[in-house]
Design goal:
The chain is of the alpha+beta class. It folds into 3 domains: 169 residues, Jelly Rolls (Sandwich); 44 residues; 55 residues, Orthogonal Bundle (Arc Repressor Mutant, subunit A), CATH 1.10.10. The protein has 12 helices and 10 strands.
Length: 290
Amino acid sequence: MGQRDDDSSESGGLGGLRRHLAGGAGGHRLRFGSGTAGIERLEASLVGEGFAPHRHDTYAIGVTLAGVQTFRYRGELRHCLPGDWHVLHPDEVHDGKPGTEEGFGYRILHVDPFLVQQALGGRPLPFVADPVVRRREARSPLAACLRDIDGPLDDFERIDMTLLVADMLERHSAARPGRRSTLALEALSRVRGLIAEDPVTRHSIEELEKVAGLDRWALARQFRAAFGTSPTRFRTMRQLDRVRRLLIGGTPPLEAALEAGFADQSHMTRMFKRTYGLTPAAWAAGLAGP
């Protein structure tokens, strides 16, 4: 990423992020920008304790803006300096911690693999072996998508952003043997749509087989190749999407858990922390921060 990209990142709310880092107090700050279906933009800063190990069902593509970001991923400790990008795959466990006492700040895109799949025209999802893309190697137009995370996104910008994400993934991907088979995308999309439309309902494997016209082994294998996660995990994530919306709207955690289809609040809390690295209470507190 060039100097122009870094300088352009100054707009759109970095003042609050910098004040949080400069204050030196422990904690985190989360600020969601403008998004669209399948794309979420987030600005975050952490001082002190970071995110616990977690995983989500989206691609997470972000750039470090200040400080040193460290995270454990695929068994190794990684470091991102200002201007470095990180590319995390769906369903890959990772954490996130400051590398120094001063903390760190970053901006990130969370992108639905379904959008990437559409941009790739049905090819299996790319595999990026090294999650850290150094500043000198990351001259990507994607930087513009994170300069002003509050700008609205129309349908054309959604498509353009998805194409840029797919291009970045393919440019930094490594060949992965055995992943060139044709996917039954129409059948898989029917299953995905059924789950997304009503994540509260737990559909049986027999029902999903009937919807897809595939046996359970082919369905499980191809669903992951197409969308980066399992049908079960995809359902859990859509339940948690509902929980987040309810929490933002002021719904008590227990009520949110039950309305989203979890057995109880403790079950929802466990799934929430495994997905976002924070408890629902800590996540909500971060949103309410200065």
